[in-house]
Amino acid sequence: MNETVRPLTPESRRQRNHDEMAGNILQAAREVMREQGAADLNLQEVARRVGMRAPSLYTYFPGRTAIYEALFVLGMRMYRQRLEALLTEHGATWAGLERIMEGYLAFALENPELYQLMFERPVPGFVPSAEGLAEAARLLDVSRRMTEQAITTGTITSPLSAEVTMNLMIALMHGFTAQHLANEPHLPAGSGRFGSLIPVLMDLLKKAWLR
Amino acid sequence: MNETVRPLTPESRRQRNHDEMAGNILQAAREVMREQGAADLNLQEVARRVGMRAPSLYTYFPGRTAIYEALFVLGMRMYRQRLEALLTEHGATWAGLERIMEGYLAFALENPELYQLMFERPVPGFVPSAEGLAEAARLLDVSRRMTEQAITTGTITSPLSAEVTMNLMIALMHGFTAQHLANEPHLPAGSGRFGSLIPVLMDLLKKAWLR
DNA sequence: CACAAAATCCTAATATCATTAGGATTTCCT
DNA sequence: AGGAAATCCTAATGATATTAGGATTTTGTG
Fold first, then answer.
1. Range B84-109 burial, b when 16+ CB lie within 10 A, else e
2. Which nucleotide is nearest to A60 (CA to C1')?
3. Which of B44, B71, B99, B206 is most deeply packed, by most CB within 10 A?
């Protein structure tokens, strides 16, 4: 079950370019993290899966932390794209907000290794780089825009500021996702003790914010 | 800054009993985890702080994991006591529920190393033992009783079952706590982007559940 | 086309830990 | 007193990240 990225011979490998190899390494790293937990990134295993020895990885990344950083940035970009797609598709309607909540959980289930890195603190000593933080800020911008849109279009009617509303929604969304992952990570997004809570939560928000 | 548990000479140490020494080790472990993150429990450092070498710890615990397990159980007991105290003091009133939410965040801030171990998954490969799970189940029982009480006494009026209500409250409580810890762990419990959200959230629940 | 520079990869250290082995010393019970 | 149990230590062992140093291949340029 280790062959998703096929080992290449040195000859064929060298024909490919640097960026492609770096991409392969990141993919292999994601697999390892998914199997053993985000904090347990074993470089020898990563190297094995791309057909190298561990020290050769240092040609592509200056160390373990750099791989985490690259994956943090990758994850932020992937999730932001997903969020933006949902936003253009549904707008800041109630249905759209519900999709966003589902989408957060779905992203976490589909990419648990990235989710852990981005939104939990599983790796001792890992702090996102400046580039990572910039990417996170961009994501926050999208969320802010979305919340403002929901307020100005009248989807949400409440005395709360956009900022507070956004923080609240982030906290709620994160809350049931974290619980779902901790307790029933094998169950699909809409099900289980916590996964099934999304429509309940949306009803609650509607009741509180639509009057 | 390493001297909270004072190293003892072998002579004076042997006069103390096994359980007391085990307790010292757990305290030292908590300090190390607090300084370096729950996943970074360094046994050499723990041993140093209680005046031993690392292999001697194995007299008291069969390994690193056993220390995590003991701390998991300890944390569950500490938090449950706190919860029960709040419950007897305030009952399942709105004020009581708000205190419980604050208390969860406060516990996390006061004992971050225990909180991480109990409610996040920071340690690769760590799964709570049977005793730990039993302790967690006891905590869940208290929460369930509390929720049922809130419903039967009429504090909460909603069409939701006690089970769903409880899960929802757990998810919400955990959500802003996790965000507070991830973003502003140095700020005290009632403040900051997420810590200040508790009264907002309680208002929201009241609006939704008091009609 | 040749050849020097750069890139890539490897094997061999080195350093840090958890854990195990084995033995010495101390404590405790009878 | 004398032996069993408990406690602690020093020395391995084994895993893993990282560094050093060198060989080989690729590539850009005269």
1. eebbeeeebebebbbbbbbbbbbbbb
2. C8
3. B71
The answer, for A140 touching chain B at a CB cutoff of 8 Å, is no
Query: Six-digit token pair at B180?
Result: 């507070």
Between CA B205 and CA A49 the distance in angstroms is 50
Cross-chain Cβ contact A167/B194 below 8 Å: yes
Which class in CATH covers the domain with range A8-61?
A: mainly alpha
So what's the pLDDT on residue A124? 81
User: Whole-model pTM above 0.70?
Assistant: yes
Q: Dihedrals φ, ψ of B157, to 5°?
A: -120, 105
Task: Compute the nearest-CA separation of B197 from chain A (Å).
Answer: 7
**Residue range(s) in chain B whose domain bears CATH number 1.10.357.10:** 68-209
B160 touches chain A (CB under 8 A): yes
Name the pLDDT band for B81 (thresholds 50, 70, 90). Answer: very high
Query: Which residues 45-74 on A are within 7 A of strand C at the CB atom?
Result: 47, 51-53, 55-56, 59-60
Closest residue to D20 (CA to C1') is A55
Architecture of domain A68-209: Orthogonal Bundle (1.10)
Question: If you count DSSP H runs as helices and E runs as strands, how many of each does chain A have, helices first?
Answer: 10, 0
A137-195: per-residue pLDDT in tens?
999 999 999 999 999 999 999 889 999 999 999 999 999 999 999 889 999 999 999 99
Q: How close is the nearest chain A Cα to the Cα of B7, in Å?
A: 27
- Which residues of chain A form CATH 1.10.10? 8-61
* Contact between A178 and B175 using a beta-carbon 8 Å cutoff: yes
Q: Which residues of chain A have pLDDT under 50?
A: 1-4
